[in-house]
Structures are given as C-alpha cells and as structure tokens.
C-alpha cells in the first residue's frame, strides 16, 4: 500500500511539472492536475492541501532527485588537501550539475518566467537562494578555518560569491540557448579573481 501511495504522489508531481511547463503556474489548476493523472480533484487533497503546497513539494522532490546519490558534505573534510581554487571549482561544478538536471531546468524555466507576478514562484527562488547562501557561508567558513582564504566579513563574501555564481549560471544558460555559446570559462575567471581578492596576506 505504501508503494502505491509513493508512486501516485510521484506521478502527481511529474504531471504538475509537465502541465506547468505548458500552461504556467498561474493558469495551472488542481482540476487539470487531477485529470492528467486520472484521479478526482478531491483525491489530490490526500497528498497536498493546496496548489502552493504541491508546488513546494515539487521543488523539494526535484532538488533531491537532481542531487542523486550525492552525499551530504562535511566541508571541514572537503577542503583538506585542496587549493582554494580547487575547492570553489568543484563545489561550483556540483551545484551546476544539480540545477542542470533536465527536470530541474524545466521547473526553473517556469518559475523564472513567473517570478514577477507569482508568489509561489518567487518563494521557490527565495528558498533556493537562501539554501545557496547558507551552504556558501559554511564552505567559506571551512576555508577560513583551514587557512585557504581570509575574510573580514564572511557573510558579505558569501553573498557576493553566491549571487555572482547564480547570475553567471543564468547568463551562461541564456548565451547557450540564444547564441549556442559556452561560457564555462567565466566561472574559472571569477573563481580565480575571488581567490585573489581574499587570499591570505603574505602568500
């Protein structure tokens, strides 16, 4: 019985993703979702209490799916034996791989296009940004403890780094789609300049 419950919930989430990519979040209704998976609208409430809850669950599910078997990171162990450039390059590549998942990208296209007028979309982007900021702070703190870089204000350094990487990801996606241009070199250049800015004095 539990297996059927999980499969049905997964089907609902995937159906929501497909419908949202066609109709957008604002136009998407619970009735459409229920019809697409062959159940009554009332049955959706056995899994989700509202469309907002469904969308949040979809985001959480896709994020976990895109992480795959990637284990939780102990940043103290992760930075050992690596240069500052290597630490940031590897962590950036892992994050880009996660959000570059096909379903995750489809979801992001929807919420990015609806962010200005959809509270649900704005909330998802806010959640993702705050997750990125938190993990960046943890990473930079570990780098400072292990004397890879030196920050006078880790909070501001994390904000600067996370927002720049986030914007570079969006920019590179647009360049690839519109001009078929690969901008991966920009990440290397930015990471090198970031490490140069915060390198330990005297090194």
TrEMBL record:
Residues 29-48 bind DNA. GO terms for molecular function: DNA binding. InterPro entries: Homeodomain-like_sf (IPR009057), HTH-type_Tx_Regulator (IPR050624), HTH_TetR (IPR001647). Keywords: DNA-binding. Pfam families: TetR_N. Residues 6-66 form the HTH tetR-type domain. PROSITE patterns: HTH_TETR_2. This is TetR/AcrR family transcriptional regulator. It comes from Paenibacillus anaericanus.
């Amino acid at each position: 019985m539990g297996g059927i419950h999980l499969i049905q919930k997964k089907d609902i989430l995937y159906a929501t993703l497909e419908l949202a990519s066609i109709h957008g979040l604002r136009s998407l209704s619970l009735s459409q979702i229920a019809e697409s998976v062959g159940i009554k609208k009332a049955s959706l409430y056995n899994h989700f209490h509202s469309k907002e809850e469904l969308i949040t669950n979809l985001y959480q599910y896709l994020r976990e799916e895109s992480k795959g078997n990637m284990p939780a990171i102990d940043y103290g162990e992760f930075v050992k034996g690596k240069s500052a450039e290597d630490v940031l390059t590897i962590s950036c590549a892992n994050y880009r791989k996660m959000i570059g998942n096909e379903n995750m990208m489809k979801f992001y296209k929807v919420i990015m296009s609806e962010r200005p007028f959809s509270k649900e979309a704005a909330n998802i982007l806010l959640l993702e940004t705050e997750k990125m900021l938190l993990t960046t702070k943890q990473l930079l703190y570990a780098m400072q403890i292990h004397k890879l870089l030196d920050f006078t204000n880790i909070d501001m350094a994390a904000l600067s780094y996370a927002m720049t990487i986030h914007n570079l990801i969006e920019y590179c996606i647009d360049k690839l789609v519109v001009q078929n241009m690969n901008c991966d070199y920009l990440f290397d250049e930015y990471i090198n300049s970031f490490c140069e800015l915060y390198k330990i004095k005297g090194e």
